Amino acid sequence: MTTRAAKEPVNAGIEGAPRSFEEDLARLEEIVAALESGDLSLEDSLKLFEEGVRLSGQCHKRLDEAEGKLQVLRPGGAEKIVVEDFSPEEGK
Amino acid sequence: MERRVFSISELTGYLQARLEGDPVLQGVWVEGEISNFTHHSSGHMYFTLKDSGARLRSVMFRGSNTRLRFRPTEGMAVMAYGSITLYPKNGDYQLYVDAMEPAGMGSLFVAFEQLKERLGREGLFDTASKRPIPAMPRNIALITSPTGAAVRDMIKVLRRRRRDIDILVIPAQVQGEEAPSSLIRAIGQLELLEIDVAIVGRGGGSIEELWAFNDEGVARAIAASPVPIISAVGHETDFTIADMAADLRAPTPSAGAELATADGAQFCRTLDGLAHRMGLALRRTIASHRRHLLSLSASVALQRPDRRLALRRQELDGLNIRLERAMRATLTQKRHNLGAAAGRLDALSPLSTLNRGYSICTGPEGRVIRRADEAPLGTRVIVRLAAGHLGCVVDETSGGVQS
Predict the structure, then answer these.
(1) pTM for this structure?
(2) What is the pLDDT of residues B202-245, one digit of tens each?
(3) Could A73 and B171 be called an inter-chain contact, meaning their C-beta atoms sit closer than 8 Å?
(4) Is the CB of A29 less than 8 angstroms away from the CB of B166?
(5) Nearest chain B residue (CA) to A28
(6) A38 pLDDT higher than 80
(7) What is the SS3 assignment for A20-88?
(8) Least CB-packed of A92, B177, B229, B280 within 10 Å?
């Protein structure tokens, strides 16, 4: 008796972000540890640094710029699920 | 026959001992109706429990009555648990009440305890099966009433912590007969909607109002959901079965929202800290590589042949310079010597003697006359001066004998 979900999952729309914040943070910590170890070649160091800058920038972008959606699930006709914007002021 | 006469205190003491020593009266459940109820400013509750045939004075002290999950009112039928005691000062016996519940709730609580035990034995409440709440979920579902303070509070707290998080309200009945099935349906949708974390909750209420969260079906749905669920049934002290089955329990809906995500600004600060360390580490790496490179190039340069040639040439130039210097020095020295010799020579030359005022006197044969007796009176002599000469005749002589 499960109702079919709408095609678009609630969290879609974030550009190329299958990775979670936690994964990004973990990768960044790895990069920092590797760079601080001082054992890397110059090219590897630069490559890792670039990746780290990119990761950090991406996270920042999502956190600072993205406006989170506020939606409510409503049952549509024939048990379809509809997602629409939610305004908490309605009702008492 | 002797009379045994007691003092009032003695008799009262006896009565007190009898009452308080009787196990039936210590820890006893009674059922009755509340009357003359007072909630004193001290926090203690004073009332009378009565039925058609008798009255029992009762007191429930503050320490016990704060745990009450309902508000006792005049005329309410209740069940009270406590102990009988006697107060000697006024000759009264009283029931000290430890716990109380509305009459008729008894069976509900029994069912609650039984369900709790059964589900506990099945492992639904095991800590090991509780899913971790993600630190930074991208989205969150709120299974709650779409109206009322609870949903607004949760949204406010979530937005304060994470402006970027997507919030989905899944409306559900949170009290009444329809509530359990409504909650179960909502929980079932979480996985399909790819939700990272959900809060199932509502604001505070009476026991009856919260009862849906003690439903077996709801507890099973929460335990079975692969999506982590925070239960936030708004009653600080109560634990519903949903609370026990959930992956995390919050005392209120707002607290639930706090627990659902870490603070975004703080996460950014953590990121910035890591980026800073990265920059420092890279600079150190570059500096160390540069030092290494420099030391390498310094030693490599000395091995190169054209460099060796240049060195030789440099040596040669050096020698040439030294040679020139030496020669110039020698020349200068020789000139100096020559000059000195010439000077001496000059001093010795007759010309310079003449320049000094001396004259050379020569006789008739041209012989230089040095002594006066070499030129007797009348001799014709030539006196050579620095410039020109004089022809003279000697008309006087004196001395001239060489000593």
Answers:
(1) 0.59
(2) 998 888 888 999 999 999 999 999 999 999 998 766 789 999 99
(3) yes
(4) no
(5) B274
(6) no
(7) CHHHHHHHHHHHHHHHHHCCCCHHHHHHHHHHHHHHHHHHHHHHHHCCCCEEEEEECHHHCEEEEECCC
(8) A92
- Cβ contact (<8 Å) for A60 and B268? yes
pLDDT, tens only, A57-89: 888 888 888 889 999 998 765 555 667 777 766
**Which of B193, B268, B282 is closest, CB to CB, to A45?**
B282
Q: How confident is the model at residue B150 (pLDDT cuts 50, 70, 90)?
A: very high
Provide the ipTM: 0.74
Structure tokens belonging to residue B50: 């009565």
Nearest to A21 among B136, B147, B189 (CB): B136
Rounded distance between C-alpha atoms, residue B341 and residue B337, angstroms: 6
> From the CA of A81, how many Å to the nearest CA of chain B?
10
Two tokens, residue A38: 């001082």
Residues B97-120 pLDDT 10s: 999 988 877 677 778 888 999 999
Q: Which residue of B has its CA nearest to A69?
A: B166
CB contact under 8 A, B275 and A56: yes
> Percent of chain B at pLDDT above 70?
96
A contacts of B169 (beta carbons < 8 Å): 70-73, 86
B174 vs B210: CA distance, rounded Å:
8
Q: How many CA atoms lie within 13 A of B172 on its CB side?
A: 28
Integer-rounded Cα radius of gyration of chain A:
21
